[in-house]
Each structure stands twice: as C-alpha cells, then as structure tokens.
C-alpha cells in the first residue's frame, strides 16, 4: 500500500463507526421501498456504500480521490459485494446514468466552494434521478459552524500514526477551516508528515430550500441529527430529503 493510500486509510480509523449505521438507518426510513438503484456521492473509502449494498440497494459510488476509491474497491471485495466505484466530481455527473436514489452524507456538500457550486451539484443530481426519485444529503448547521467548531481541537496518538486536528472560523459567513497534520509510519518505521487543509461552508435553511426548488425538487423535508425531528436552534447536522 502506498503512503497516500495509508493516509486515506487513516480517515477510517478516526471516523466514528456508529455514524454509518445511523446514516443507513436514516436512509432506510426515508427511501421508498420500491426504489433500488442508488448513487452515493463523495463515497470515500466505501464504508457507507457497502452498508447500502448489504441493505439490498444496487450501489454506485463516486469520489474525487483515487486513493480513497482504491480502498473502497478493496473493502467491497472483502465484503464480497459488487459495487462499481467511479472517480469523478459531483458537479459533473454526465458520465453516469440514471438512479432511483442519490445520497451524499458526511457533510460532503459543505466542501463546495460557494453557493453556485452547491447549486451545480443539486442540478446534476436532479438530472440523474428517475422521476419520483429521492435525494438525501446532510450538511453542517449554521450553529455547528458558528458556535461549535471554532476553536475545536482533537489530537490522537496511535501505534502507527499521530494526528493533530484544529478548526478555525473562516472569513465567509458560516465557514470553517480544518487544519489536519498526520504523522504516518512507513515500512522502515519512520514517520512521514502529511498536512491537509479542509475548508467547509454551510448556508441557512432558507438558502438550501431555495436552491433545491430552483433545481426542480419538490416535497422537501428537513430533519436534524439523524432523527425524524425538525431542526432546533442547537441542531448540529441538518438532513434534507427531496423528491424529483
């Protein structure tokens, strides 16, 4: 495994595994029973895609990262499930077909650089959904970006890697910067340093509603924090369920 694939694998070790069960359960409650073909955007190392496949969906996974997808293919093979993984940008799905369902979790839409980029994704998803299809995605709430994240710090030391994660408020409204530094052990026992900067931005609920309506979606429902409850002022994660 290359160092970059090791770097991608570190993401799995720092993620809370219970979140994938929660994303799966939320999806199963809100996806119609008669819909089967599912596209997962920003699928990463494929954990959620495998969960969806094991739940009975015909899954296609899309991600920008070659290294993430290499791990996703190994994960699907180990789980003995068939999932096509495609490298690509969710702002351009023209090389893909039509789907009954689309999911985009782990606040992946918050990585879009601006409102227009979010709009582009919504329009692409709408174009590649079958009539009556459902799009589910989650994003950080404005409370999360404005009150919870700024000043957040997380450090972890494991046998073969160490990580420092600090989060700061950014200039644009409801935006944050995650600065991540990893020290990953190579085959010779030496630690190699990797630095990444992740910029995320969210918008108020009305903005998402407007963008979804402009893309053509209808019957938009909004929930919070993996539960079938409406958002409150202190909800951290918003879930949108939209129909074509």
The CATH homologous superfamily of the largest domain is called Vaccinia Virus protein VP39
CATH topology of the largest domain: Rossmann fold
**Stretches with pLDDT under 50, minimum 5 residues:** none
Beta-strand residue fraction: 25-35%
**Adjacency order of strands in the biggest sheet:** 3-2-1-4-5-11-10
Shape: globular
Q: What's the Cα radius of gyration?
A: 18 Å
How does CATH name the architecture of the largest domain? 3-Layer(aba) Sandwich
CATH class of the largest domain: Alpha Beta
Distance between the amino and carboxyl termini = 41 Å
Determine the structural class based on helices, strands and strand pairing: alpha/beta
Number of helical elements? 7
- Mean pLDDT, to the nearest integer, reads 93
Oligomer: single chain
Please name the defining characteristics of this protein.
alpha/beta, 4-stranded antiparallel β-sheet, 11 strands, N-terminal domain of TfIIb, Rossmann fold, transferase, single chain, 244 residues, methyltransferase, 2 domains, 7 helices, 34% strand
Structure in words:
This is Methyltransferase domain protein. It holds the Pfam family Methyltransf_25. It comes from Streptococcus macacae NCTC 11558. InterPro entries: Methyltransf_25, SAM-dependent_MTases_sf. Keywords: Methyltransferase, Transferase. By secondary structure, this protein is an alpha/beta fold. The protein folds into two domains: 3-141 and 204-243, Rossmann fold (3-Layer(aba) Sandwich); 144-200, N-terminal domain of TfIIb (Single Sheet). 32% of the residues lie in helices and 34% in strands. The protein is built from seven helices and eleven strands. It has helices spanning 3-14, 18-30, 47-54, 66-78, 115-127, 142-148, 205-215, and strands spanning 37-41, 58-63, 85-87, 99-104, 129-140, 153-157, 161-169, 175-185, 191-201, 218-224, 237-243. The strands form two sheets. Strands 3-2-1-4-5-11-10 form a seven-stranded mixed β-sheet, sandwiched between helices. It has a four-stranded antiparallel β-sheet with strand order 6-7-8-9. Helix 1 (3-14) packs across helix 4 (66-78), helix 2 (18-30) crosses helix 3 (47-54) and helix 5 (115-127) crosses helix 7.
């Amino acid at each position: 495994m290359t160092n970059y694939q090791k770097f991608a694998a570190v993401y799995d070790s720092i993620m809370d595994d219970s979140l994938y069960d929660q994303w799966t359960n939320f999806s199963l409650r809100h996806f119609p029973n008669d819909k089967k073909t599912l596209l997962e955007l920003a699928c990463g190392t494929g954990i959620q895609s495998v969960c969806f496949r094991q739940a009975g969906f015909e899954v296609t996974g899309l991600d920008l990262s070659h290294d993430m997808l290499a791990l996703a293919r190994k994960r699907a093979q180990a789980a003995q499930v068939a999932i096509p993984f495609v490298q690509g940008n969710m702002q351009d799905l023209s090389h893909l077909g039509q789907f009954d369902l689309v999911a985009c979790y782990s606040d992946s839409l918050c990585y879009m650089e601006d409102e227009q980029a979010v709009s582009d994704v919504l329009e692409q998803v709408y174009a590649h959904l079958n009539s009556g299809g459902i799009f589910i995605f989650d994003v950080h709430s404005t409370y999360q970006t404005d009150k919870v994240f700024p000043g957040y710090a997380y450090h972890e030391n494991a046998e073969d890697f160490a990580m420092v994660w600090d989060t700061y408020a950014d200039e644009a409204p409801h935006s944050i910067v995650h600065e991540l530094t990893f020290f990953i052990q190579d085959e010779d026992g030496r630690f190699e340093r990797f630095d990444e900067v992740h910029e995320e931005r969210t918008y108020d609920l009305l903005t998402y509603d407007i963008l979804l309506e402009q893309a053509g979606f209808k019957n938009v429902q909004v929930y919070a924090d993996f539960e079938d409850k409406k958002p409150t002022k202190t909800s951290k994660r918003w879930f949108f369920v939209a129909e074509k």
